[in-house]
TrEMBL record:
PANTHER family: LEUCINE-RESPONSIVE REGULATORY PROTEIN, TRANSCRIPTIONAL REGULATOR AZLB. Residues 7-68 form the HTH asnC-type domain. Pfam families: AsnC_trans_reg, HTH_AsnC-type. InterPro entries: AsnC-type_HTH_dom, Dimeric_a/b-barrel, Tscrpt_reg_AsnC-like, Tscrpt_reg_AsnC/Lrp_C, WH-like_DNA-bd_sf, WH_DNA-bd_sf. This is AsnC family transcriptional regulator. One of its GO terms (cellular component) is cytosol. PROSITE patterns: HTH_ASNC_2. GO terms for biological process: response to amino acid. Keywords: DNA-binding, Transcription, Transcription regulation. The lineage of its organism: Bacteria, Pseudomonadati, Pseudomonadota, Alphaproteobacteria, Hyphomicrobiales.
Length: 151
């Protein structure tokens, strides 16, 4: 996919609708955005082929999965060489608790979103991923009390 895609107002409206609910039938999408059902289907196919729509996913309530605790962790590394960055990313990718991670600029090098059953699980995670990695200089934990925007 190119850095930016050329999207008209119908594409943007369609993307907003499918981001809210990917299972909305094409005929309903067509009514909502003012296109025919076949035009909606063609646009969705094109948006997927061009990589604008990356995935259609199911958002499952974390408590049902036994992971109600949501944490965001700011991680600072000692050194940001390519091999050390790649090794840290490989570690994160190998951990099922990691729901998302971003390599960022500013006071931290990474922002990591975790979903866990409880604080004892987070302590085990910190020992295995942060304390046992000599390249992790520091980490700060933000505990989410409640999600106020988003799904």
């Amino acid at each position: 996919m190119p850095e930016t895609a050329t999207l008209d107002r119908f594409d943007r409206a369609l993307l907003a609708e499918v981001q809210a609910d990917t299972l909305t039938p094409a005929r309903i999408l067509a009514e909502r955005i003012g296109l025919s059902e076949s035009a909606v289907l063609r646009r969705l196919r094109r948006l997927r082929q061009e990589g604008v729509i990356v995935a259609d996913v199911a958002v499952v309530h974390p408590a049902v999965l036994g992971t109600p605790l949501c944490l965001h962790v700011l991680v600072s590394l000692e050194r940001e060489t390519s091999d050390r960055l790649d090794a840290f990313v490989r570690t994160l990718r190998g951990r099922p608790e990691v729901r998302a991670a971003w390599y960022v600029t500013g006071e931290a090098d990474f922002v990591i979103e975790l979903r866990l059953p409880g604080m004892a699980d987070y302590e085990a995670f910190t020992r295995a991923v942060f304390h046992d990695d000599p390249n992790v200089k520091a980490f700060r934990t933000l505990v989410a009390m409640r999600q106020v925007i988003g799904i």
